[in-house]
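Anyone else keep sequences and structure tokens together like this?

Example one:
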Amino acid sequence: MGTIGGGVFQAVKGFRNAPAGVAHRLKGSANAVRIRAPQIGGSFAVWGGLFSTIDCGLVRLRGKEDPWNSITSGAMTGAILAARSGPLTMMGSAMMGGILLALIEGFGILLTRYTAQQFQNPPPFTEDPSHLPSKEYGQQGPITR
């Protein structure tokens, strides 16, 4: 995912930053993808692996799987990856990671609730089934409950 997304982004960036002319722009685009896409893909893989490791560890430690695990994992991943830059940068990265994952989890919860409400109350019948032939319902006369 990181390599493909990074490749598309770098292709556009290389195309825009290359000198005028179609041949120069295509060469600049291909050059940017060749140089930067593997780095972006590797960074994405490191982030995803660390996030998943921390998330699974929190599930095991806490004994339950809820949004707090993901939010905490995002914050801890941001902090760990910024550890070489000092404590202030670690705190900033941890806050950004936690906020980003909180937004993603919140959106997921809202989407789940919205889709669940659609199926909670089925729409009413538009016609009364009691006047239909009884063989379709496997019983005689109107349906009674």
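And example two:
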Amino acid sequence: MSFFPEISKIKYEGADSKNPLAFRHYNPDEVVEGKTMKEHLRFAVCYWHTFRGTGSDPFGPGCAVRPWEDGTDSLEMALKRVDVAFEFIEKLDVPFYCFHDRDVSPEGKNLAETNKNLDAVAAKLKAAQARTGIKLLWGTANLFSNPRFVHGASTSCNADVFAYAGAQVKKALEVTKELGGENYVFWGGREGYMNLLNTNLRREFDHLAKFLHMAVDYAKKIGFTGQFLIEPKPKEPTTHQYDSDCAACTAFLKTYDLDKYFKLNIETNHATLAGHTMYHELTYASSYGMLGSIDANRGDLLLGWDTDQFPTNLYETAQVMLVVLGQKGIGSGGLNFDAKVRRESFEPVDLFHAHIGGMDAFAHGLKIAAAIRKDGVLNDFVKTRYATWDTGVGAEIESGKATFETLEKYMLAKGEADKNVSGRQEMLENIINRYMK
């Protein structure tokens, strides 16, 4: 049975194509900087927005037309949804998918029944992966939707909730390993606070660290060798989330001796909510060897919440790929479309339009980034701008040989610092504009 009978496999037709159901820039076999686009981009479809999203918002219920849905969260519907998901992913020609445990499988009346449901769906997912060659980029546990997590999961004031969350992650890790997941993600959906008046902040940080160390220990025990990832987000649903941005996450991981086990899964819309650009967040993470994977979306800069729109901005996608190419790839991570079609885009075909646009935007951005790198315009300028650090007093400072005393002696003899040179921001922005075609 076909759930998208009017859609054929999406193919590359080139930049001149007017076919809305074809790729104009994403050619999976095209080689860029020694690797194919498919290898560079490692696209993934997210299970939650794509196959569970209904288009609901605070002002109205869902209006998405999904002929395969029966309106229930039953195990039978979950098993059917696997067929829907893999037909969609196959036709889109994407190599990976991602899920939360509750996206793919319903909760039961107790933990034992919930785990049994997940095992049943995991068995079907594994068979679908074997049949199609589609792989699991990462799995994770939903530790935020159920009312038990009203005060958080690992940071809850209720120790029983911490225990339940641990049991849930244990199972999610087992399933992720069984399905060959290449990563495992922690997103602290409610790991934060609404009000400091009722919060023991340091105690909650300590509990979060203990929870993550338990996950590391259990992964070693069962032989899960995938990369652990933390996904920063500053707020929403809490007032302040503990994984607020890349800098906060990196500091937390280093403080609690977790940085050797974790990298970051960075989302564009979360970066902007934190008051940063995606370029900043990726550059920060990459600078410290912490960039592990990317949730590819965008927000609406006129709105103050997480809109999770599909990426279309070539400046952003080119910047993302400049960072990824600069660190020689994304490793076991990928570009996961944690994005949802708009409420007004309610027909099944809109799911294809959205993903095609996002994939093309990143393929185009990849080509732009590679061209910029080939010409060396940014690297050459930056190298020249920091040239005073390569020799003389700059080299002594960086090597640790300089002291305040030696710096004073140097400046007393010299009298005044050399003149600064212009940062040439406008020139560089103009140069980048040349590649936007």
